[in-house]
Amino acid sequence: MLRDGLRDEALTGSVIGAFYEVYNVLGFGLLEQLYGAALERELTARGHHVGREVSVAVTYKGEAIGCQRLDLLVDGRLVVEVKSTVVLAPAATRQLYNYLHATRLKIGLLLHFGPEPQFYRVVRLRDNPGA
Question: pTM for this one?
Fold first, then answer.
């Protein structure tokens, strides 16, 4: 159900809360894998099912050409991409959008464990990755 235009608001809100909890405890400067492990624990403690390093097939004209790995897949419907850099690369949101396209899911969160914590919601509205 949509409320104020936000899809899966309760789920994304819970993940964002977990993100800030992890950031407040660990701070800035660790490897992305460590933040991912901490997020997995925090989200599991909050009652979520979390997959880490989930492999997703990439297809070209209906044929598998390889795979990519999602940092986290929460409750089977939210893709979470974790970044730990001083400056977030402009292509980071595009990468998440491509993950959404590959999984056919609609919502993703980009969690940036930078000098200041930041998060971005990415919504896939169309099936075309170039859209």
Answer: 0.88
